[in-house]
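[SOLVED] Predicted holo structure with zinc ion

Edit: marking solved, answer below. Original request kept for reference. I posted the sequence and ligand SMILES and asked for the 3D complex as structure tokens.
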Amino acid sequence: MKVVRFHAPGDVRFEDAPEPEAGPGEVKIRVRNCSTCGTDVKISKFGHHHIHPPRVMGHEIAGEIVEVGDGVEGWAPGDRVQVIAAIPCGECAECRRGRMTICPNQVSMGYHFEGGFAQYMVVPREVLKVDGLNRIPDGVSFAEASVAEPLACALNAQNLARVGDGDDVVVIGSGPIGCLHVRLARARGAARVFLVELSRQRLEMAAELVKPDAAICAGETDPVEEILKLTDGRGADVIITAAASGKAQEQAIQMAARQGRISFFGGLPKDDPTITCDSNLVHYRELMIVGANGSSPAHNAEALELVASGAVPVADLITHRLPLESAIDAFGIVARGEAIKVTIEP
Ligand SMILES: [Zn+2]
Ligand SMILES: [Zn+2]
């Protein structure tokens, strides 16, 4: 079968690999869609300390079961499934408390296990053990189902930042994750959602799709001033930074309303992880700053339901569909910001 495999930083190959078989406790799928995201670009350029090459990449996975290993119950060939990306252990102190996104023993598809940029893939028993294989609801396509994983990550962040009724929400960064955050915030009852982005071109492409109440180009105007103007000086109830930018995080703190919640959704570069935070703003305004690290199996299941019910449409966010041999080109499209969501159809 054909796969897209990481060999070394800057060395990702479209090549042949033996077709895997489902061992005991495992399920084999025919991958129908595996979507790309910024993480794939990062891995292809820099590698990752959890990836021991060669490794099939890809973690936003949807497909069809073709083989069920010994001892697996409840699944059959032909079932349409979505696979979680981050796999918690299900047993540690955090997992037992239901905090599966911060499991210290977390392993991941496309990192520790062969990923979805392949015609076939084995779903490891670690995924099945924590209920990480989800049935795709009727009416949801494989392509849409592959976007459930990033949507699940957005859902985790908005739960932690308590996005809800009547909130003025700012999303900084208009990539696929930013677009999902705008849609999800609306579904959760936000009063207004403002989108902030450095690049005018990327901002316009996203704004046309997700129609924020205001689209602010941070490359042309000061987003803090703009948000204060739009909120009569009050600031925003929730700010989500969906960009790997320390400056965006600093601006997020400055544009928060009293008791505002700030989600540092996007991480910062490892060699530059420090920001300046006016601690007195946090103190006097009772701000809450929260992180967000991936998603749990339950978030993935809920994300599929949000897509199925129409609460969070994702079909129109998939702007590019490419065959497996074009996956490496797809990373370039993602890196240059020319697309919202690029999905690979192996
Ligand atoms: Zn991803
Ligand atoms: Zn755990």
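OP edit: The chain has two domains: 2-135+314-344, 154-291. Thanks to everyone who chimed in.
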